[in-house]
Design a protein that fits this description.
Elements: H1 17-29, H2 36-45, E1 53-57, H3 60-70, E2 78-82, H4 87-95, E3 99-103, H5 114-120, E4 125-128, H6 140-150, E5 153-157, E6 165-166, E7 169-170, E8 177-181, E9 194-198, H7 200-210, H8 231-261, E10 267-268, E11 276-277, E12 283-287, H9 291-300, H10 333-341, E13 342-345, H11 353-365
Parallel strand pairs: 2-3, 2-4, 4-5, 5-8
Antiparallel strand pairs: 1-9, 6-7, 6-11, 8-9, 10-12, 12-13
Bound molecules: pyridoxal-5'-phosphate.
Pyridoxal-5'-phosphate binds near residues 60, 183 and 194.
Length: about 375
């Protein structure tokens, strides 16, 4: 790689002077644990989810875990989850002692296929967890209809999809609860952090659960954990939230540019379903051919690239059940195919026009040789 071929990273978390100043202001104030910054962050974030009540926690995983606890899910319950996601989606189900039932994805959107969800329902099904993967909203209109028909709860894993929407409704405003992550590589961050959006009644339970079951100090009402967000994180999250709209526009514009100019026949660019606002947490193509060779050549050209996720969750050790002890086999052909084909390219808002040109040139050079 020459100097001109400096690496274009796959993701670029932002910690600018504004974020640093916000953190220092909180540190100097002496109010560093869940205090006024957290309350303000919750209030401001609720605008992203149609005014639903928001509860800040210390990670996206905690957000999922607490929401499942708030619904009272536990042993004997089944939750339908896509296997094509980050393990946190399924782990949250296991953490409350419920069983994960995997359903296949739609080939175009990489999100849960509603028909597969319906086919996976049993008398033990208690909830559905659609994941808005890569920033593309799952088919919430159809999933909510299925949930209603079968009286199931819905927990949206929106950890990758801040400000994504379907037919004008933002993700996190469809189900019983929406969950967001503020991990540094996400579309916005708070160093580490998470948020749950829910109705006011559920939000009260979530607040108890995140703080040892206490609303008033030492008057514990239920068994809870400590998954509080610090005020330092909230102050950083608030700064990032003011920039999210601009960053999202850039992600969408960058994705549109890549899709327009990538012409390599064996590289399938991502599609957005009708009515969808895809916020491109990832810009993920399918490689029809030798993916390892394609990735090596992109890396050689200084183009950051990564596979999310090379191993579907059902094939990870805690979930893999080749002897079918649980009496189930998972037939997830679209999940398996996606895991074997996908590669994510840089799409983050810090990309310049020369960066975009280099990405397009490198991808098109993959040509038909794959
Ligand atoms: C789809 C999905 N769900 C859940 C999580 C968990 O979020 P966190 O890393 O903040 O715990 C992540 C992010 O890492 C994610 O991508």
């Amino acid at each position: 790689m020459s100097d001109a071929q400096e690496l274009i990273p796959a993701a670029k978390p932002v910690i600018d002077e504004q974020e640093i100043e916000a953190a220092v202001r909180v540190l100097r104030s002496g109010r560093v644990v869940q205090g006024p910054e957290v309350a303000a962050f919750e209030e401001e974030f609720s605008e992203l989810v149609d005014g639903r009540t928001c509860v800040a926690v210390n990670s996206g995983t905690s957000a999922l875990h607490l929401m499942l606890m708030a619904l009272g899910l536990g042993p004997g319950d089944e939750v339908i989850v896509p296997s094509f996601s980050f393990a946190a989606s399924a782990n949250a189900v296991r953490l409350v002692g419920a069983d994960v039932v995997f359903a296949d994805i739609d080939a175009d959107t990489f999100c849960l296929d509603p028909a597969a969800v319906e086919a996976a329902i049993t008398p033990r099904t208690a909830a559905i967890m659609p994941v808005h993967l890569y920033g593309h909203p799952a088919a919430m209109d159809r999933i909510m209809a299925i949930a209603e028909k079968h009286a199931l709860a819905v927990v949206e894993d929106a950890c990758q999809a801040h400000a994504a929407a379907l037919n004008g409704t933002p993700v996190g405003a469809f189900g019983n609860g929406g969950t967001f992550s503020f991990y540094p590589t996400k579309n916005m961050h708070s160093l580490e952090g998470g948020m749950v959006s829910a109705d006011a009644e559920t939000a009260r339970v979530l607040r108890l659960l995140r703080n040892q079951g206490m609303e008033q100090r030492y008057a514990n009402e239920i068994v809870g954990a400590n998954v509080r967000m610090t005020d330092v994180s909230a102050a950083i999250g608030r700064v990032q939230l003011t920039k999210l709209a601009g960053w999202t526009e850039r992600r969408i514009a960058n994705a549109a540019h890549l899709t327009e100019h990538i012409t390599a026949p064996n590289v399938i660019t991502p599609k957005a379903a009708e009515g969808v606002r895809h916020v491109y947490h990832q810009y993920t193509v399918r490689i029809r051919g030798d993916r390892d060779a394609a990735m090596a050549r992109l890396t050689e050209a200084g183009i950051g690239n990564a596979v999310y996720y090379p191993t579907p969750i059902h094939r990870l050790k805690p979930y893999w059940d080749p002897d079918q002890k649980a009496g189930r086999t998972w037939d997830l052909p679209e999940t398996e195919r996606a895991a074997a084909e996908v590669v994510s390219l840089p799409v983050h808002p810090a990309l310049t026009q020369p960066d975009l040109d280099r990405i397009v040139a490198a991808v098109n050079q993959l040509g038909e040789e794959l």
